[in-house]
## 1
Amino acid sequence: MPGPRRAAAGRPLPPLRLTRRGRAVVVVVVALAIAAAMVLVLPRASMAWSGEPPRGHLVLAGETLWEIAVAFDPDVDTRTVVDRLRRINHLASVELTPGQFLLLG
């Protein structure tokens, strides 16, 4: 186990003490770390809830995910829309059940 810290002349150094400026620096660094964490977390939270209810679709008998994707976003490549719908609805496949509710985005 190492002994106490020693100065160049062999005398023990006094315990480390923070000055008023040092304490202020520590407070500022901690505040910046908290602010940075909030900047990273809050945008995601605001994206999760935009203030309006999520759009959805109740699956009818015989409907396919492809048809729903075309109707929902006809200007975007349908494969991309199908992939997005599968991801946001946690679908393992494109199989749908009549009465199933799909979030559309």
## 2
Amino acid sequence: MEDEEEEARKRAIKAAFSERFESFQDSLLLLYIKNNLSGRNKFREKWPHAANYVFGPELVNYDDHGVTDRNHRSNLEEEAENRRIDILNVIDEATLKSVKSGSLEFEYIGGVLDHFGPDISRLIYAENIIERVRPGMLKDSGPADTGSSYSSDIPEDLNFTVADDIDDNLKPIETSVPKLAPENLPQEPQEAPKAPMQAEQPPAFEEDDGPGLFEPNAFESDPYAKPDQPEQASVEPQPFSDPDANIQDIKAPSQDAPKGPEEPVRPEEQPFMAEEKPSQPEAPPKGYYMDLFNKVAA
């Protein structure tokens, strides 16, 4: 039962209010009036009759012809802001008080119509509801605001005729670029496909008997390295065959390993040899030269 009453109430509310109700409410919520000439002009373009009520004729005159008194315009903007808030408050209240138990509240709706007049009222309530509550109220009013930003002033019964024969001097000049056939279109030169880059191969070197410059182990030879020596033969001890032999007379087998080639002596391993000074002749005995002189003189 309660669900049916709620559905009936929703249907009655939907039928009681204007089709432009929500759109008009959204525009009022987004409107900012003070020091916002551009915003006011946009609202006037979309809701011209409602703008005349909200802004008032004096503020509209300032917006159209320029301001002569800034303080006066500021006061007019404040009054327009109060009217905007008043409409929003009534809209919120009307959704709750216009319909009760699926029936219209004629007394409340009549008060709203008298307060705002036909231009604002037809944006809140449906026109058939206005005629039921206040018959003849919309008779002398102009066309309702449609909520559209663009309006046409051309009469609907105006007919247009287009002449078939137009003077050659009045024909528009063809300024478009002639279209070329596909085969006549200039084509951009096509570049030959580039071959994929290949890694450069290192230069080949001729083989040589000796170690090459780039061969492995070319610089690993050591002139002072020790040559490979033959392994020493292991000598196993022999048991004594004669138990009476003297132990001292028994000679042990030679342990001397075979000598290999002489190892080269490294410069740093050579012993330091002091340089020998040349020997000087011994001095002749005393009186040697005197005896030699006497012999020559004789």
